[in-house]
Specification:
Order of helices and strands: EHEHEHEHHEEEEHHHHHHHHHHH
Structural class: alpha/beta
Number of strands: 8
CATH class of the largest domain: Mainly Alpha
Number of domains: 2
CATH architecture of the largest domain: Up-down Bundle
Strand order of the largest sheet: 1-8-5-4-2-3
Distance between the termini: 33 Å
CATH topology of the largest domain: Dehydroquinate synthase-like, alpha domain
CATH superfamily of the largest domain: Dehydroquinate synthase-like - alpha domain
Shape: globular
Length: 379
């Protein structure tokens, strides 16, 4: 990294800590609000000791039970178009938060004759109106979407992933309560936790990294690499959830400035074509992408090794650290359970170089490099 001027901007008010979810009561008094959630999220919310008796069930829209897709979001917007809404609350994981972000901006845009499809073609259309105020309350800790200006939407009929990027997608407030992690199914802990670790890594080996994002990345990796394997074994440990929630938050604050990079670029085809869960798909190539990036170390990986208190030779130690994490969660075998054979994987290599992701890497990457990374990861 050079010594040029850098900047950092993130307007999200962050409220963090056990039982902090109760703070949402202060924001919804005298408001016409809607809560975007999943089936699991709505059940948690209605039974919650702090919120269950306060939240009105008919204000919950239980609509997100998979990755957000264009058709379902357009349908939600159509159903809400005639309602007067002051506030949208996202209560759930990354897919719920991404969906709520899109609704908060596209609902007012629909009144101006601008559809979600129009926004996907030109993200600048987001700036043609003021979004509905959005409060995000994550119940899984991985995507960091609650503090980023990005949202992802899928078109599975065309096997394509679309990204929206605009400052209008920042939430107004994010309430991060680690207690909400307790009770999360182990597989969700694994895939969302891997997503958080991978985002921190992707922000670190990113050509857009700056001193601010790098510090968030280093802290996130230190927390995630230590806490995630233990959390899988002790999923009711609040101290571990505190660490994992911070890991996710810091990774989100990092990628809000840098975006993600090659692992995410490769992962989109793995999810679209094979249905591999996002965090697993990202983690699959993480050790191999690290190995590829270490050839261009400008000092950032030495800082990571120092942060993790690794000994020399630091490059081997770093690679082994990420391999060890994947092995503990059995990432390779999980991925192979979705992919019929290596040929079906390698045949998608040309679809794994996404502009705005792959070209964020600190090393230039070609399709032949992708094939090498896939071979190393698969075997």
């Amino acid at each position: 990294m050079n010594n040029s001027i850098c900047k950092y901007y993130n307007p999200v008010e962050i409220i963090f800590g056990p039982s902090s979810r109760a703070k949402v009561k202060e924001y919804i008094v005298s408001k016409n609000y809607k809560i975007i959630s999943s089936r699991r999220g709505s059940e948690i919310l209605l039974k919650d000791i702090l919120l269950g008796g306060f939240i009105k069930g008919d204000n919950i829209i239980n609509c997100v039970n998979g990755y957000p897709d264009i058709a379902s979001i357009e349908n939600i917007i159509s159903n809400l178009i005639n309602e007067s809404i002051d506030l949208i609350i996202a209560f759930g994981g990354g897919s719920v938060i991404d969906t709520a972000k899109i609704i908060s901006i596209c609902l007012p845009l629909r009144n101006k004759g601008i559809s979600l499809s129009d926004v996907l073609k030109d993200n600048n259309k987001c700036s043609r109106t003021s979004p509905i105020d959005l409060i995000t309350i994550p119940t899984t800790f991985g995507t960091g979407s609650e503090v980023t200006p990005f949202s992802t939407v899928w078109d599975f009929s065309k096997k394509k992933k679309f990204s929206i990027s605009n400052p209008s997608l920042y939430s107004k407030v994010s309430i991060i309560d680690p207690e909400l992690g307790i009770g999360t199914p182990i597989r969700i802990i694994e895939t969302t936790g891997l997503d958080a670790v991978n985002q921190a890594a992707e922000s670190l080996w990113n050509k857009n990294a700056n001193p601010f994002s790098m510090q968030y990345s280093l802290t996130s990796l230190q927390l995630g690499l230590q806490s995630l394997p233990n959390l899988v074994s002790s999923p009711d440990d609040l101290d571990l959830w505190m660490q994992m929630a911070q890991c996710s938050l810091f990774s989100g604050l990092a990628i809000s400035q840098t975006r993600t990079a090659l692992c995410h670029s490769i992962s989109y085809a793995l999810t679209s074509y094979f249905g591999i869960p996002h965090g697993i798909a990202c983690a699959f190539t993480m050790p191999s992408v690290l190995r590829y990036c270490l050839e261009s170390d400008d000092g950032r990986f030495i800082r990571l090794a120092d942060t993790l208190k690794l000994s020399s030779p630091y490059k081997d130690e770093l690679i082994n650290k990420f391999i060890s994490l994947n092995e503990k969660i059995d990432v390779e075998n999980i991925v192979k359970g979705y992919i019929p054979n290596f040929e079906s994987l390698i045949n998608l290599s040309s679809q794994m170089i996404h502009p705005g992701r792959a070209d964020n890497l600190i090393r230039e990457v070609r399709e032949e490099d992708i094939k090498t990374i896939l071979r190393q990861s698969y075997s």
